[in-house]
Amino acid sequence: MTAATEPTTLLDRYRARRVRRWLVREKQIAGMLPGWRTTPRRRALVVLVIVALTVLFVTGLLCAFGLVWAALFAGLSALVFVPSWTMLRIVSQVQDNAPAETLDELEFAQRETARSFGLTVTQSLTVLPMMYLIWSGALFPEADAFRTAYAGGVMVLATVLAGGCAPAMVLAWNRSDVEPEN
Questions:
Q1: In 71-150, where does DSSP find H-type helix?
Q2: Which residues contact 176 (CB under 8 A, 6 or more apart)?
Q3: Which among 25, 46, 98, 138 is least surrounded, fewest beta carbons within 10 Å?
């Protein structure tokens, strides 16, 4: 880099480093999971992530009613969620978190729309579990921590993860198959 193009502020250096790291990571994941990069497979991963998060939320609901054995489903849900979410991010080329400098205008617009949708999902879904956490402690002070804090925490976790995962799920669902180069 020359002195004219050298990042001068801390924020500029952070952005430049983020772009460099992202380009390296993009090269690393470019050839991973080639059989999963088709539209039907990406959509199957999206459905799997949604199912895992739904099971996590239902686990919180069941725990709120005092069903102690339901807590096991939180672990099972995590065992499904983590690999399916990782695979989804790989096959969608981590576009939901790409630096703006690496995207063209269409990709940037799609990412920003998906991020806006993710924020709306987070805000909409998290309200009910948060109200449960607030009001269960206030209205039922004799209730145990499992039925209030753990159950509410699991429900909040599921909704926050759903909102955080929404941009990647939207982009993966709507992305067309890449045409092989000749």
A1: 72-91, 105-139, 145
A2: 39
A3: 138
Name the residue among 37, 17, 36 with its Cα closest to residue 25.
Answer: 17
Query: What is the rounded distance in angstroms from the CA atom of residue 46 to the CA atom of residue 100?
Result: 24
- Write down the pTM of the prediction: 0.86
Token pair for residue 177? 């198959």
Name the maximum alpha-carbon separation found in the chain: 69
CA distances for 98 relative to 3, 52, 92, 113, 114, angstroms: 26, 25, 11, 14, 13
Model confidence over 58-84: pLDDT tens digits?
999 999 998 999 999 999 999 999 999
Q: Nearest-CA neighbor of 43 among 181, 180, 182, 177?
A: 177
